[in-house]
Amino acid sequence: MKQHNKIKAIISGGGTGGHIFPAISIANELMKRNPETEILFVGALGRMEMERVPAAGYRIEGLPVSGFQRRLTLKNISVVINLFKSLKIADNILNDFKPQIVIGVGGYASGPLLRRASRKGIPTLLQEQNSYAGVTNKLLAKKAKRICVAYKDMEKYFPPEKIVLTGNPVRDIRISENLRSEGLTHFGFNAQKPVLVVMGGSLGARTINMAMLKNITEICGSGIQVLWQTGKYYFDDIRNKLADIKIPELKVTDFITRMDLAYNIADLLVSRAGAISISEICLTGRAAILVPSPNVAEDHQTKNAMALVRESAAIMVRDNEAENHLMEKIQELIHDKEKLSDLKFNSLKMAKPDATSHIVDEIYNILGFKE
User: Fold this and answer.
1) In terms of domains, do 45 and 94 share one?
2) Do 338 and 255 share a domain, yes or no?
3) Count of domains observed in the chain
4) Beta 225-229 vs 146-149: how paired, if at all?
5) Which of the residue ranges 12-16, 52-56, 273-277 would you say has the lowest mean pLDDT?
6) Using CA atoms in the order 261, 285, 175, 233, what is the torsion angle rounded to 10 degrees?
7) What is the pLDDT at residue 72?
8) pLDDT of residue 17
9) Residue 66 has what pLDDT?
10) Is residue 254 within 8 Å of 235, Cβ to Cβ?
11) pLDDT confidence of 180, banded at 50, 70, 90?
């Protein structure tokens, strides 16, 4: 292997936190290994990566790309036009930045960028978070040098010789008593009362929000403190509906920026079962009630959740049962210290804490670099 000086890498993809947070984790690990590394992100204009990536300290370029509508509609004409525009812009970005490798994390923007990179002979690596591969990654797999996955049996989607089982890269989150104390102060909670953290993903989850709205007075009245991430789509409506209700034990936000502190204070989590949420729950060893989204390909969130349920590492409530039964499960679990302890222990056993490092090892291997 040749000794490297520095890497120039483009990381492309986004759309949701499930794509963006792994991308930032990979970038952070690359910079940790060699601070001279140059990284450029490429995302989709108007999507959340255009805010989250600069907030993490990285430069990002946007493409005017979006997904096709599944039904026949005139909107698909503009989608095609923007796709061709994006391919041209991708060419310009690659010519200007001259990356040694391009990393795709899924989402619309990674399609044009990685397609053009492969055509120019630039090596590409894909990172697939889910047990059901995304459309973009399936289309890009043939030309990729390596495909890093989080689940077994991904040969049905990708060439088996390119697959490496790494786990999902997640945010650098540590659990400690000091961080718990800091978190309680940060969110204004009492150390003597249990804390429920509710998160429906970066965009929000309607079913979870409706179940919370229906029962919030009862749950806070039973001595439970609640940190509730509504997602940006639902925040204004929920804030308006709660305007006349004063509940000191309730903190409502559209997005939890200090998720590290949220995990540290959580006695119990309520969450969708997206791949990154699952990985972070296991990494932090939290007890969780998972409510899989029914609006995903091949119902893969239920498969994600069941992987934990089978190991007694989480409780699952189906989406169509959540409005009537989620509160019952919360009340049942959050005061049962023995059950919470069992869930935490079993979830921690399923963690893959070295996923990000493993992926960066693969990047170095592709380039023939050593540390």
Assistant:
1) yes
2) yes
3) 2
4) unpaired
5) 12-16
6) -20
7) 60
8) 75
9) 75
10) yes
11) very high
| Residue 226 one-letter amino acid | V
Q: Same domain for 343 and 358?
A: no
CA distance 255 to 204: 9
pLDDT band at 2; cut points 50, 70, 90: very low
CATH of the domain at 148: 3.40.50.2000
CA-to-CA distance for 196 and 87, rounded, in angstroms? 45
Q: Based on the domain organization, do 125 and 266 belong to the same domain?
A: no
Instruction: Report how far residue 157's alpha carbon sits from residue 143's, in angstroms, rounded to the nearest whole number.
Output: 14
Residue 11 bridge partners (DSSP)? 41, 103
Helix runs in 222-299, H state only:
235-241, 259-265, 275-284
Per residue in 28-37, pLDDT tens? 999 999 999 9
Closest of 303, 298, 266, 297 to residue 281, by C-alpha: 266
Same domain, 205 and 132: no
Residue 361: per-residue pLDDT: 96
Tell me the residue range of the domain where 259 lies: 177-349
288 shares a domain with 358: no
